[in-house]
Design brief:
Layout lengths: L13 H10 L5 H10 L3 H8 L4 H4 L10 H8 L2 H9 L14 H7 L3 H8 L16 H7 L3 H9 L15 H7 L3 H9 L9 H9 L3 H25 L11 H14 L5 H9 L1 H4 L3
Helix pairs in contact: 2-3, 2-5, 3-6, 5-6, 5-7, 7-8, 7-9, 8-10, 9-10, 9-11, 11-12, 11-13, 12-14, 14-15
């Protein structure tokens, strides 16, 4: 499991200043930029990016395909990353194993760096690395809730499956027992019916019985809401509180086919509180 430590930018230390002075002229500027970012030396990076050739330096790669931006994201140095992005660093750059900067941020738990990357135009959120994992899969696997929510808001696909292992984000969250991530994914559309092979696989992969029961309960409740909304109007309302008409109609119809009808108590409640039911 990768380290989960958050690296926080502080003022330049005397150690960084000494390294900058002694190593600034050791090699070509391209290698210096890589070395500075690998060591998370902010002063050194700042000095190098003031050169005329800054634009040609920021996308240099080492033998493993790591660029200065990828190194800065791994260290969680938002100050260095900001300087690199302003100097023209490619936000979608990848290592030789196809890990993007977003994947690196999710893998190492550097949420501030991830949120920073998502603010860049054209940041690709659904790229898969050589192991078949997306940034969202890593964020869900390692319980980075804020980062996962931001990825979904930016367009990350919640139901993408790893082409190698068959895992999706919900399965990864269930396997590791992350209830908040599970709930967030269900409400974001990662819904599977109990009799589907996908849902059965997710239950089998769940960490323990508690997570299994949580999955079933929250999935049933989400689908029950969709069904009851459909029953209330004969269709599904369009509002900022609901999914699109096409999506909700599909979910409502599937829920009606897959689950028992609402109990008498539920029907009484929704007949008496129709306005409330519309906004559940």
């Amino acid at each position: 499991m990768p380290p989960q430590q958050q690296f926080i930018d502080t003022t330049v230390t005397s150690k960084e200043a000494a390294a900058t002075k002694s190593e600034f002229n050791d090699s070509s500027k391209a290698l210096q930029v890589l070395k500075a970012c690998e060591k998370n030396n902010r002063l050194w990076v700042s000095n190098l990016l003031q050169t005329v050739a800054a634009n040609s330096l920021v996308n240099t790669k080492d033998c493993d395909g790591w660029s200065p931006l990828l190194w800065s994201v791994r260290h969680g140095s938002t100050t260095v990353s900001s300087s690199l992005l302003k100097a023209g660093a490619n936000v979608n750059d990848q290592t030789h194993t196809k890990d993007s900067a977003l994947s690196v941020a999710a893998l190492y738990g550097n949420t501030p760096s991830g949120l920073q990357l998502l603010q860049s135009p054209n940041c690709a959120v659904n790229t898969l690395n050589c192991n078949g994992y997306s940034p969202l899969m890593y964020a869900c696997r390692y319980n980075h809730l804020v980062f996962a929510e931001a990825l979904i808001a930016a367009g990350a696909t919640v139901n993408t499956h790893n082409p190698i292992t068959g895992d999706d984000s919900l399965t990864l969250a269930a396997r590791n027992g992350h209830q908040q991530i599970i709930l967030m994914l269900i409400n974001a559309g990662a819904v599977q019916f109990e009799n589907s092979p996908g849902f059965q696989r997710t239950l089998q992969q769940a960490k323990d019985d508690e997570i299994c029961h949580f999955l079933v309960k929250e999935t049933r409740w989400f689908l029950r809401k969709a069904l009851l909304m459909a029953l209330t109007q004969g269709d599904v309302i369009e509002s900022s509180h609901s999914m699109s008409r096409a999506q909700a109609s599909s979910v409502g119809a599937a829920a009606a086919a897959a689950y028992k009808p609402p109990s008498a108590q539920e029907l009484v409640f929704f007949n008496l509180h129709r306005e409330v039911a519309l906004y559940l």
